[in-house]
Amino acid sequence: MWDYSEKVKEHFFQPRNAGVLEDANGVGDVGSISCGDALRLMLKVEPETDIILDAHFQTFGCGSAIASSSALTEMVKGKTLDEALKVSNQDIADYLDGLPPEKMHCSVMGREALQAAVANYRGEVWSDDHEEGALICKCFAIDAVMIEDTIRANDLVSVEDVTNYTKAGGGCSSCHEGIEEILVKVMAERGESFKPGTPSKEEAAPAGMTNLQRIKKIEAVLESVRPQLKRDGGDIELLDVDGKTIYVSMTGACAGCQMEALTLQGIQQKLMEELKEFIKIVPTKAGALSRASCNP
Amino acid sequence: MEGIYFDNNATTRVDEKVVEAMLPYFTEQFGNPSSMHSFGNKVGLAIKKARMQVQELLGAEHDSEIIFTSCGTESDSTAILSALKAQPDRKEIITTTVEHPAVLTLCTWLEKDGYKVHYLPVDNKGRLDLDEYKKLLSDQTAVVSVMWANNETGTFFPVVEMAEMANAAGAMFHTDAVQAVGKVPLNLKDTKIDMLSVSGHKLHAPKGIGVLYLKRGVRFRPLLRGGHQERGRRAGTENTTSIVGLGKAAEMAMEAMHHENTEVKRLRDKLEAGILAKVPRSFVTGNPDDRLPNTCNIAFEFIEGEAILLLLNKFGIAASSGSACTSGSLEPSHVMRAMGIPYTAAHGTVRFSLSRYSTEAEVDRVIAVVPEIIAQLRKLSPYWEGEGPKEEAFAPTYA
Lengths: 296, 399
Fold this sequence. Notes:
The complex is a heterodimer.
Chain A: H1 6-13, E1 26-32, E2 37-46, E3 51-60, H2 63-76, H3 81-85, H4 89-95, H5 104-121, E4 135-137, E5 142-143, H6 144-154, H7 159-166, H8 176-189, H9 201-204, H10 211-231, E6 234-242, E7 245-252, H11 260-275, E8 280-283, H12 288-294
Parallel strand pairs in A: 7-8
Antiparallel strand pairs in A: 1-2, 2-3, 4-5, 6-7
Chain B: E1 4-5, H1 16-22, H2 38-58, E2 66-69, H3 72-86, E3 92-96, H4 101-112, E4 116-120, H5 130-136, E5 141-145, H6 159-168, E6 172-176, E7 195-199, E8 210-214, H7 240-278, E9 282-284, E10 295-300, H8 305-314, E11 317-318, E12 320-321, H9 324-327, H10 334-338, H11 343-346, E13 349-353, H12 360-380, E14 384-385, E15 388-389
Parallel strand pairs in B: 1-11, 3-4, 3-5, 5-6, 6-7
Antiparallel strand pairs in B: 2-8, 7-8, 9-10, 10-13, 12-13, 14-15
Helix pairs in contact in B: 1-7, 2-7, 7-12, 8-12
């Protein structure tokens, strides 16, 4: 059984704003009956102010589809159209205290219904390139179509590439077989055959930087975040760079801080942006590395 | 737990008497049946008894035809892979489009290894075309794997007849009978069925125990190699407690066979008629004239199955659905699609599966609750208006 949050259950069992809105002036119909989800969103917009006075829905779908629809109507009421359009599918999921990865598409459907309803009100034609595949990576909710398209667009050759470009496979790794199957299929389209163990694109064609240049760049990034860390009574030190792995040591108040993982994630993101490659940052105690190398 | 459990094709409650039979084998009788002392010997004797109890339920000729495994899926994999390994010159498999994933997923995987798999289609009542089957059988067919009864609709397949035909073509015949064993009288010794899969937890034994029936003389290649357990055909220390439990459950299933086909069937029929009479735009899927006595699968048009299940669960009623959302896949049940059930109904299918513990009061309660739930969800559905589907059909973008 799905692990639905209390909020999802509440919005499913007592949906808000369900049913036809008689004087709606913006209607969005989205969904796919083959996938088992379809939604009609009805808005009543005040023409002078563009404010959404009322919002109703009708949904064919599972518990989370109905809950996402209900949440959406609550979220957009009282907003102007432009404000409402800023509501993302992640906002809908957050409003419901999260959705299982398999169910994130329910919130996507809500977001699309909103776009469609606003377009309908404004007399525009709304079209969408929505295409959804089977869920492959459950850790990061990445589907097959997304993976296929990314492999095609970037000529990817390995599971590692796919993880680097889409995040798929970067968690529990159970889906690696599934990713390999997609690689086999897409690579066959361009007349290549998938070979396990092929180095990722990044390794095969290293970024045009010498090691020294890279290390200098890494130091510069660390330098840029140092003031923030120092403000909280902590610091960071670069210990070693081993290919894609960057070893650092968190010191002072940062060491063992509950926010350490979050902080490192932020730094890792920044490093990836600056270096334009995928790297992993690993917190290590100073001295641990040299000792480890004595003991191969 | 209080509640009405109508999901017995998913799993069943372990009978108290089964638990009672098992308990001594956790503690006092903990020996390894392979050991050369009386700790082991006593357990060995208990396994021998269980084997004979299962033999009787299946109507097998020899007790050595019963191989204990860990589950129905292991039995299915062992059977199909063994048939391929034992007949390396034959490269084709025949199965159906409505098999359980335990067989289907294995078959699609084998296709990658170069095996040709033929998937027999079904008609709108879930029936196979035997003429088509006959055409596919050849000297290339290594194994035919066809389920005895479909888990979703309960529809029977003519496996006894199909086994004869396979045998005439020199192919092995396997049947996944996990839903049928215990509900249908079996007499395997009078059939040409070579291999048959059983799952303990479908017949009031624990989870984690299964059986592969292997007719004497059928060429066999084990899946698990190692020790001499199960005469070398399934290595690994025996799951002694569960084997004892399955033996007891098999004995009890024999005793309950008549009840299953009279009383349980009567309750199922009452439930089905009661729901269909009260809910418009609902229909039975599969073949109502030839199916398991405990199963009924009803499609409720224009609403989605997971939502139905969540509301049923609120009333303490447990059932199951073929909707895409309950499985986390994007497609509704492959069984419903194979029968050509339209999407507007396939997503709204609900399976009620009863057992010998089901009561009249439970059936009455479900009949009373279901129409309310269906009406409540249809009020939310963009496909529905008032008492029927919208006149102007709802046609969302990218439908």
